[in-house]
Structure formats: structure tokens, C-alpha cells
Amino acid sequence: MTENAKGLNKTRIIGLIVAVIAFIIPFVVQFDGLSVAGHRVLSIFLMAIALWISEAIPLHATAALIIILEILFISDKAMLPLPAGFDAPSYKGFYGALASPVLMLFLGGFFLADGAAKFNLDTNLVRVLIKPFGTMPSRVILGLMLITAIFSMFMSNTATTATMIAVVLPLIAKLPEGDRTKIGLVLAIPVAANIGGMGTPVGTPPNAIALGALAKEGVNISFVNWMIMVIPFMLIVLFFAWFVLAKFYSQNDSKIEIDIDSKFETTPKAILFYIVAAATILLWFTEKLHGIPSTIVGFMPVVVLLATGVINQKEFHSMQWSVLWLVAGGIAMGSGVGKSGLDQWLIGLINWAEMSPAFIAGGMFIAALLMGSVISHSATANLLVPIGMSLATAPGVAISPVASAVFIAIGSSLAMALPISTPPNAIAYSTGAIKTKDMAITGIMFGILGTILYAGFASKLWNLLGIMPE
Questions:
Q1: Which stretches are transmembrane (predicted)?
Q2: Which of 31, 155, 334, 409 has the fewest Cβ atoms within 10 angstroms?
């Protein structure tokens, strides 16, 4: 066994021990003002934190564990008796998290992303879209970032990064030793993937977690409204990121030639996929015209692509089902926190009414940034969104549930200061072209700018545009 494997096993063992201890504490320590059901959900919540941080078991396994524990401890089928007067939620509601409409929206995104990779649509689009940016390093970096960000709005950040890094590696191989353009080209990809993923509901799991939490409260945000709310500030962060990378990590005396040998497939299945993908995206963009919710639209390509064999059985089995389970666990966690009264107890520990909306929003954003830098972005959103949503609905707190959920989702996505912060960072770091210092400096800068923009100005713009849901 290697030293790394030994260290990893040790970390997991410690994580399991901490998780068990954390789970037991609320059963032996009584907290004033917290109900019996609240103590039980606190046990599950603390355990989830320990498991998600340590990754002692897979993230999606923790999500499944949350669902079954909530059924066994606070549902109408609880194995331990609950106090008289507690309105125990139906166990079917917790299982229902696995079939949330938001998950169907995300599943549709998976099918489009996998189909794009299968028919080389992603690589072909890169070849077409990158040509207008020429050969100057700063312009090539801009082109790569824009293409990566656009892809990440509809594809997995990880898949997008893997595709774009494959394009970049031949470029940096041709550059002379010591040319800082290598750093700029490689670093541009994960930065743009993380930023671009914020732009649509299907861009990244934290977005789905936020939408799921809002849907539980009866607040539904359309595909286009999410884009209108997020993209203006997303573009500012993206172009600032490009300016920083072009300024400090490119040498304009270099010349970059991009030669991608590929062509669009014209097989019947490829053409059918192009039509289905275009139709799905068009329906997402025109939701206000036809009235079909984006969650229903997202399920349409699933049915069509499976029925026609465009996505075969093997490809279907290889889908990122673990991500859907992770999102479902977050939805169930939020449901348990709310129905047990744990959220109100946690909120009552601090006098939020004396804090300004900007301060509260900034606090949420920074908490997501810090936590998302050391654990999974999805796990960060799963832990913080339920608390943020409950805080937003508490008396005297001047921040909307929408702002709360969206800020936490965006803050999670902007957490990219370390190689371990997100899979795109890990992929870029594995090339050996960048150092942790480069990633940390730029990641912190972009996180600070995002905090200022979203926490300081987003709600004002949303109200001005009249798109802030009630």
C-alpha cells in the first residue's frame, strides 16, 4: 500500500469516527429550545458535515444515508417514538426527493452533455468558435474562456474542463520553457468552467440544490430568469478573470496556432441528437412563451434519446447518477431541517434582525466560498442552503429566500482557490503547468469580486428588472 493510500485510509477512518461521535452528541446532550425531532435532525446534520468534509464514504452515499435516517427518525414510520403533537412528515416525502422535478431538469442536462461528447459536438464547436480569436495569447485565452464558460452552462464542469484541457495541452507543448502563457492557458479553463457553470440551472449541482430548496417553498424560477439574474454579474467576473490572466500570465510575443482536426458527424443519430439538443435549449429559453416548465422540458430529451437509441443502454448506465443522488440528499436534508424545527433553533442563536441585508448576504456568500474551497461544492450547497433558506424566512431578517439560495449556490461555484476545491481545478493542476500559488491568488481575487458584485448589487438589479420572485 502506498503512503498516499495509507494517508487516505487514515483520513477516512478518522472521518468515520468523527461522524459517529457527531451523530451521538445530540442524543446525549440536550440543547435548550430544541425539539426531540430537532435533536435527531441535528445528529444527522452533524454526521453529514463530518462525512462530506472527510469523504469517508462517497458523497452520494452520505446523501442516501441522510434520506434513510430521516425516514427512520422523524417520519411517520420512525423507529423511535416521537412526542405527541409533532406532525411527523410522511416517509414518502423523503423518498420523493429522489424524483424531484429539479433532478429531472439536471438529468436532461446530462443527456445533452453525454450526447455532445459522443458525437464530438463539443470538439467541433471549439474548432469553429476559436478561429475568430486569432493567434495572440491574450485573445486565445479570451476565446478559450468564453467557449469553456458557454459549454459549462449546459455541460458538466468536469467534462467541459477535460475537453478543453485536451485542446490546450498540445498548445502549451509548443511553447518554450518558462513562457508564462502556459499558466494562463491552463488556468483559464477551470476558472471559466467554474464561473460559466453558474449561468444556468443545469450548469452545476449547487444551482439545482438552490432551485430544489426554493421549489419546496413554492418559489419557481424559470430557466431564463435564472440566467437573467446570474449572467450579468457572471460576465463581469469572467472578463475580470480574463484581464488578470492575460495581464500576468501571457506573453504577447508568443504565437499560438490551434489546429483541431475534426468534422461534424452526419449520421442519422447524430443529426437527431443535434435537433433534440437545439429544440431542448430553445424550449428552455422560451419558457415564458409556451408555458412548459423547464423541469418538464429537461425530461423530454431523456425520453426521445432513449427511445430512439441515440443514447444506448451502456451510455445510460454510465450517466452521473451519483450527482443526482447527491442533489436529492440535499433536498431531503433541507426538508428535514425545516420540518423538525432545527432551522429556527439555529437561527435563534444569533440576533439577525440587527444586521443589514448586505452584511447577511455577504456572510452567506463568504461562508459558501470558504467551505467550498475545502469540500465539494455540492456538499457545501447541501449544508448551507437549508440554513440560508430558513434564515431568509425568519421574522425581522431583511433578505429574500431567492437571494439567500442563489448567493449560496454562486458562492459555492466561485470557491476555486485550491486544487481540491473542485474537479476542474484538480484536472488543470494535474497537467503540471500551474502551481497551487497561482490558483490560490487568482481564486481568492475572483471570489472577492463575486462577493462584492452579488452580495452588494444583485438584489438591487433583480428588483429593478422586476424579476425577483416573491
A1: 12-29, 41-74, 94-113, 140-173, 223-249, 270-286, 292-311, 323-342, 362-385, 397-420, 440-458
A2: 31
Alpha helices (H) along 308-435:
313-317, 321-340, 342-347, 357-372, 377-392, 401-413, 423-429
Q: In whole angstroms, give the CA distance from residue 80 to residue 282.
A: 50
C-alpha cell at 282: 430553445
CB crowding 226-251: b at 16 or more within 10 Å, else e:
bbebbbebbeebbebbbebbbeebbe
Please check whether residue 427 is in contact with residue 165, taking contact to mean a CB–CB distance below 8 angstroms: yes
Q: For residue 220, what is its C-alpha cell?
A: 419557481
Residue 414 near residue 447, CB atoms below 8 Å: yes
Neighbouring residues of 112: CB distance < 8 A, sequence distance ≥ 6: 154, 155, 277, 280, 281, 301
In sequence order, the 6+-apart residues with CB closer than 8 A to the CB of 265 are 119, 120
State pLDDT tens for residues 2-51. 545 555 578 788 989 999 999 999 999 999 889 999 999 999 989 988 88
Q: What is the value of pTM for the model shown?
A: 0.78
Average pLDDT, the chain: 86
Residues in the chain: 470
Spatial CA neighbour of 39 closest among 52, 50, 51, 28: 28
Burial class for 141, CB neighbours closer than 10 Å (0-12, 13-18, 19+): buried
Neighbours of 393 (CB within 10 A): 16
